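Researcher: Quick test of sequence recovery. Tokens follow.
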């Protein structure tokens, strides 16, 4: 199965870095968050990726073009006709297709544009700015069991603000927000059947709006509940939190060896 990654947005809420690169190329531990997501899928045996690029798409293409060099030790011998010798090769078992899906195309339009690359078969799809420890194989098994067109991973995000316990207008206590205070949200990590393309009209359609609402109304959208780790990287604060987890050696999304 192919893995479709949405990586074409502007990332305006993390503009400190996204002014120079697409948000999925913002680094955690020296590697783009896009790489972290791909390593998750690869751990479960899914290595065929389609990247829906747009804003600064040339940055993504160049990074993958040079990936083999970045990850290997190399001797540049200028005394012998500029020969390059590669040592200790570090390559991934990946097939990566980077598609320019347009600068201002919305999420639904980006998915529609890679229809010919996917073909008439189910595929994974997720956002290029969020990591999780969701079990991809269990997600796929659930999707097959549901027998519907689309399955998303439902997550409960960490609360950003503390809660107040109140009686009427009286404040009784302050406490941290718990997961029980929050409902599930769309965490990405989807499995989609090719039939979802029929729900997307064109470039300027947000997949999370009309298509998903129509899928839900038709009884074709299911949720795989995941109560483990999930975190998107919307802001610099999010990035710093993820960086700390990675630096501590306790990053929950690092399921690979």
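Model:
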């Amino acid at each position: 199965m192919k893995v479709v990654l949405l990586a074409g947005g502007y990332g305006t809420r993390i503009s400190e870095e996204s002014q120079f690169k697409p948000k999925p190329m913002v680094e955690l531990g020296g590697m783009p968050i896009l790489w972290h997501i791909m390593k998750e899928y690869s751990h479960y045996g899914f290595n065929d990726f389609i990247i829906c690029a747009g804003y600064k798409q040339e940055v993504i293409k160049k990074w993958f073009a040079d990936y083999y060099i970045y990850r290997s030790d190399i001797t540049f011998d200028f005394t012998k006709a500029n020969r390059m010798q590669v040592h200790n090769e570090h390559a991934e078992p990946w097939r990566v297709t980077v598609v320019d899906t347009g600068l201002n195309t919305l999420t639904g339009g980006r998915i529609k544009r890679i229809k010919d690359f996917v073909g008439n078969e189910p595929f994974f799809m997720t956002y290029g700015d969020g990591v999780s420890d969701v079990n991809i194989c269990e997600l796929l098994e659930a999707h097959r069991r549901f027998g519907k067109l689309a399955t998303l991973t439902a997550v409960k995000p960490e609360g950003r603000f503390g809660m107040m316990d109140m009686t009427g207008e009286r404040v009784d206590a302050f406490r941290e927000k718990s997961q029980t205070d929050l409902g599930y949200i769309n965490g990405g990590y989807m499995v989609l059947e090719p039939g979802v393309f029929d729900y997307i009209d064109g470039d300027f359609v947000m997949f999370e709006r009309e298509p998903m609402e129509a899928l839900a109304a038709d009884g074709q959208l299911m949720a795989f509940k995941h109560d483990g780790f999930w975190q998107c990287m919307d802001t610099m604060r999010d990035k710093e939190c993820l960086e700390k987890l990675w630096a501590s050696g306790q990053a929950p999304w690092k399921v690979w060896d």
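The radius of gyration is 20 Å.
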